[in-house]
Amino acid sequence: MNLVENLKQRMKEKDYSLTHIAKSLNSSSATIHLWLNNKYTGNVEKINQAVKKFLEREQLRERRIKFGFTKTSVAVDVFDIAKTCSIENVIGVCCGPAGIGKTFAVKQYALENSEVILIEADFGYTPKVLFSEIHKSLGFDGCGTIHSMLLDIVEKLKSSGRLIIVDEAENLPYKALELLRRIYDKANVGILLVGMPKLFNNLKGEKGQYAQLYSRVGITSLLEPLNEDDMKSIISSVTPLVDVIYPKISVYCGGNTRVLTKLLVRAHRIAEVNNVEIDEDVIQASMRQLIF
After folding, report:
1. What is the residue-wise DSSP string for the chain?
2. What confidence score (pLDDT) does residue 240 get?
3. pLDDT, tens digit (0-9, with 9 covering 90-100), for 200-253
C-alpha cells in the first residue's frame, strides 16, 4: 500500500477524524483532504514525510503497555463509598495520597454508573466555573448567574437519585464547597468529594469554623496505598512475569499506582529495546529515567 492508503486504513481502524489527522500533522483539514484525494498541489513531499513519521509513531504506540482497569483495594473503597453516597443521599469524602489510583477509580465508577455526574476540578476553579460544569453536565448551556444555574441544577436533580462526584476537590475554594452543600440540601442528592488529605482541612477550616459544611459529611474514607495483592494484580495485567518483577519493583513504588505503572512501562521498553528479560538491572535503569 502507498502512503495515502496506509493513512486511510489507519483512520478507519482507529476512527480518526480528518481534524485529528490534520492536528497530528500540524496541517489544515483542507490540505490533508486534498492530499488524501491526490489533488494537493503544494509541497507534497513535506506532507509525505509528515505522514510517514505519524504512521511510525502510531506503530510504536501500538507496542506500548496498555493498562486496563484493575479493581485494587483503593478502587473497592472508592466504589463502596460512592455507592453509599448514592443510595443514602449523603455527602462523602475520600482522601488519599497522590498517585494511588483515586482518579482512575472514580472515572471507572462513572463509566459503570450512568447516573453519575463527574467533575474534575482544576486549579483556579471558581464557584461559577464549577456550577457551569455541573449545569452543562445536566444538559443546560452552562451560562447565567450562579443563582440561576443553582435553580436549574436543583430542579433537575431533585428526586433524581443521581450522584455528583468531584475529583481533586481540594482545588475548590470554600465558597464552591458551600454551594455544593446548597445543592445537597435543596436537591437531596448524594455528593462524593475525592482528593488529597488537605481536603479534610478545607472542609473544616483552620479553626474548625466551617461546621455548617463539614457537619453535613455523612461518610469518610482515608485511602491507603496499594497492598501486595493490588500490585501483583496490576503487574499480571501486563506481563506473566509477576514472580520475577514484583520483588524487584515493589520496594521502589511504595504502594503508589502511578509510580508502579511508570516503572513497568519504562522497564518493558528498556527490556524490549535491549532484547532482554526484565531483571534488577532493567528495574534500576527504569528508575534512573523517573523522578522520585
Report:
1. --HHHHHHHHHHHHT--HHHHHHHTTS-HHHHHHHHTT---S-HHHHHHHHHHHHHHHHHHHTS--------HHHHHHHHHHHHHHHHT-EEEEE--TTSSHHHHHHHHHHH-TTEEEEE--TT--HHHHHHHHHHHTTS-S-S-HHHHHHHHHHHHTT---EEEEETGGGS-HHHHHHHHHHHHHH--EEEEEE-THHHHHHH-TTS--HHHHTTEEEEEEPPPP-HHHHHHHHHTT-S-HHHHHHHHHHHHTT-HHHHHHHHHHHHHHHHHHT----HHHHHHHHHTS--
2. 84
3. 888 888 777 788 888 888 999 999 999 999 999 999 888 888 888 888 888 888
